[in-house]
Amino acid sequence: ISGDLRLRGQGDWSDDDGKNRGSMQLRGRLGATFAVNDRITIGARLATGDSDDPNSTDVQLSNWLDDLDVSLDMAYVQFNFDKLTLYGGKMPQPFVRTDLVWDGDVNPQGIGATYKAPLANGGTFRANALAFIVDEQAAGPDSTMLGGQVGYESPVNGNWKFDAYGAYYHYDLGSIAGADAGDFRSNLRNPDGTYLSDYRLANATLGVTYGGFGAQWPLRLVADYVHNLGARTDADTGYGADLILGKASTPGDWRFTYGYSMAQNDAVLAAFSHDNIGIGTNYRLHALHGDYERKP
To answer: pTM here?
Structure first.
């Protein structure tokens, strides 16, 4: 059994075209996993947030003290083998990711797999795959995504370690019946309301970690690049970089992050990209984060 609660004060500053805003966000999550046997694990999690918004579990504190919505944001079966893990249901995200393409709160539905194999030099080869059911219709075409990712994680060499991943995500958006304004967001649309572009996303992620400041203060740089090969507009590219000092995995940890990112209108499918400030694409963003893991 696991759970967490986060309360965040947030300030958003824009140019003359947008309104500066101060707000408070609340997130609560309660999950559990159960090992049926050595091979099979089942898991589920309850989380706050709008059940129609898959990429945010945050709740805006407002609305005259209305009670908070809670929904089941994960329910899955996991099959564990020596080097291979299979998933089915509404599952944890299998891909190595940043918020540029996949918001951290997105838990896809369908079947997924992760394969990890140690290499002779001490590094690790990893491959991830997902068959994502986006919108299934009984009397019409479905919307699906097939995605794959391969990567390499190096062994520690002195104080240095790096990892590199390449991925391809192929969307077939035959149905938009289940989509709402929060799913389209800032992607370009045709006059009939359908998406202007197809989404065939080529994505590369590179990470470099330096451990010379001690175990408490790893320094990590993560760069991410995405290009939509199916775009019907020149607004088809996004990129970002995050510089992270520290960690937030054990009590007493501190972590500080600065990030810069840019995403053009149809660089990614905005329904599943980052939702920390309510902008899915068509932005240039500077972000500064501080995290502290409280001691019990």
So the answer is: 0.91
